Fold this sequence. Notes:
- The chain has 338 residues and is α/β, with parallel strands linked by helices.
- Helix content is 35%, strand content 14%.
- The chain is built from 14 helices and ten strands.
- A ten-stranded mixed sheet has the order 7-6-5-4-3-2-1-8-9-10.
- Helix 7 links the parallel strand 6 and strand 7.
- The radius of gyration is 20 Å and the shape is globular.
- The termini are far apart.
Amino acid sequence: MEMWSIRDVRYQVTLACNLTCPHCFAKARQPLPNELTIDEAKDIMLDLRENGMKLLTMTGGEPLTRKDFVLDLGEFLNSHGIRYRVFTNGLLLNEELASQLKERGASEVQVSIDGIEKTHDSFRGMDGAFERAIRAIKATKSVGIKTAVRLTITEQNHKEVPGIIDLLSEVGIDAFRVRPFVSVGRGSENEKYILSPEAMREAFHNIESKRKELPFPFQLITPSFHFLDKDPPTNVAEKTFVGSRCVCGKQLCAITPDGWVKPCGYFSIKLGNLREKKFAEIWNDHEFLDKMRSIDRLSDTCMNCKYLVYCGGGCRASAFENTGDLCATDPLCPLVRE
């Protein structure tokens, strides 16, 4: 049995959320009745550290609806030398809470921004959500925590990308991460937000045109089809394909609020529960993970595409959740949709 270490873990602290965003992979709203206790979570963190974990991300739902849990677990992680960060919609984050996270060693807070003012508020389904998200960003910046912003590009907000970048430049964030709307979870019920090929081209053209002058690091998250602004490579795609660019199921995994391990948050498949088994038993001996890790060929559509060297076939979760086939073409690919 081959041994696989884990480096990056995304832990859904809770399924509770104060919003019902249309792109939520977890369909979060109400907490699960059997979410991990703080003692269970601490034991699991030590198990994960023994298996190589270097970074834990607390996400949700909205993790700060379990504020005391997040602060307690953060203090524990910090005392054991485990780097951690918190992903939030920003509604509950003020300077006092940011200071508490800083005291407990949080290495980063990421806040979601999905448009400017009315567009963001409409997407989030709450008036004032944009204003509170900006307040949260400024709060974390003021106490000296690395502050990131995550943007989900949609059909409704893609024209605002230049304005969003200008706004974030003024605020002075430390990192900017972008990905398109993905049709999984609640996203599969809200496909009107999926970018048209034309909108995706425009969005990534606008990003690329500003990229060199950005005062903060910029990351395109799979499946970001940024190659649309590039000339196709001259080499043959089939000779350059060495597997998906994504590290999900290899160096990254997700843990649900009730302790299930998944390849990443976008997959619905549950591999095993950490209340019942040690992480290594689940991670190193599962048929689904074996298939993910051994993919050496995708659909003929992907293998014959000159851009495969850029995107690596897109998102395997998007492909699997929409087709049932790990090797299928990612349905979000704009070239396929055209």
